[in-house]
Design brief:
Layout lengths: L3 E6 L7 H13 L5 E6 L1 H4 L6 H17 L7 E5 L5 H10 L4 H5 L2 H9 L6 H16 L4 E3 L5 H18 L7 E3 L34 H10 L15 H14 L3 H7 L5 H27 L2 H30 L3
Parallel strand pairs: 1-2, 2-3, 4-5
Helix pairs in contact: 3-12, 4-7, 4-13, 7-8, 9-12, 10-12
Bound molecules: adenosine-5'-triphosphate (ATP) and L-tryptophanamide.
Amino acid sequence: MKKRVFSGIQPTGNIHIGNYLGAIRHWVAAQGEFENIFSIVDLHAITIPQNPKILKTKIREVSALLFAAGIDPKQSAVFVQSNVTAHTEMAWILNCFIPMGWMSGMTQFKEKSEKQKKEVSVGLFDYPALMAADILLYKTDFVPVGHDQKQHVELTRDVAQRFNSIYGDTFKFPEPIINEIGARIMGLDNPIKKMSKSEALPIHAINLLDSADDIRSKIMKATTDSDTEIVFDKNRKGIYNLLVIYEQFTSFKRADIETRFEGKGYADFKKELADVIIEGLRHLQSRYLELIIDPSYVDSLLKDGASRVRPIAEKTLNEVKTKIGIG
Ligand code: ATP
Ligand code: LTN
């Protein structure tokens, strides 16, 4: 029996190289080893106000991007979260087992609620309960994510533990898989902040669908420092981040990268970095264009994904309902 992997991505903003290097690329690479379930988490997306038309378009765009990046619909079930209603039901039940104090300690909530200009919704506060439902419904073994999601997976384990201690063995304890290098790609404009979809400034992130010209111009403008040496030094955050991106796209060894750029300037390095990213995204971008002209094909893959996972989710939900005496 293969171990089961579950992960999710929000259909918001533009998917960037942080999402790709920190998450999607690893999902693709490990597909053969596991039984995989990937969700386009639209219910998480609405914890922040969304434009309905854009949200609908983004669901398809993100799905097509996953397939274009190499997610194979035969090996992996990809589905839209709101198409499997067990997620909302399970989230409600888990709510009743999560103390307020656990939720208020969540870093992502603190960061996102500070950014939020309008009212902060209860949904945003409760985001981790829905994420715990996503994971626990499938008796997931592994959750491959970027660094920012580690705390949510820990809360998921805590609520599973609490439930099991009251009702007996029900949920499996999921383990996060975080590939430390690439797990936290930083913003190009500000290398002390993680690259994020919800950051407005265009030069903040390289998006997977950016044109070659955009990629070049963003990289050339990326923040560095007044030093000259091109070496992996964590204290020099701007150049370190760019070198990590270079390393991730080329798979070259750090020592070889440093030798390659010895005596060269930032402009030379940046030019080569831009070329490496453009080349690294070329296949994904052309595959995406092929997929997106036929939305009905992408929709059919999503429908099929939902039909495959729904019975698993419903089985766990029913087991839980029986144990707590409802339904
Ligand atoms: P937002 O910042 O708007 O919440 P996001 O960019 O974090 O969005 P998500 O859809 O929340 O995007 O994340 C999808 C996956 O990408 C998650 O596994 C997340 O951990 C990973 N990820 C997000 N940002 C980065 C980053 N800067 N570096 C590495 N991985 C990242
Ligand atoms: N919160 C995650 C997306 C997400 C997820 C999940 C990831 C929703 N449900 C379950 C792993 C497992 C994010 O913002 N990246």
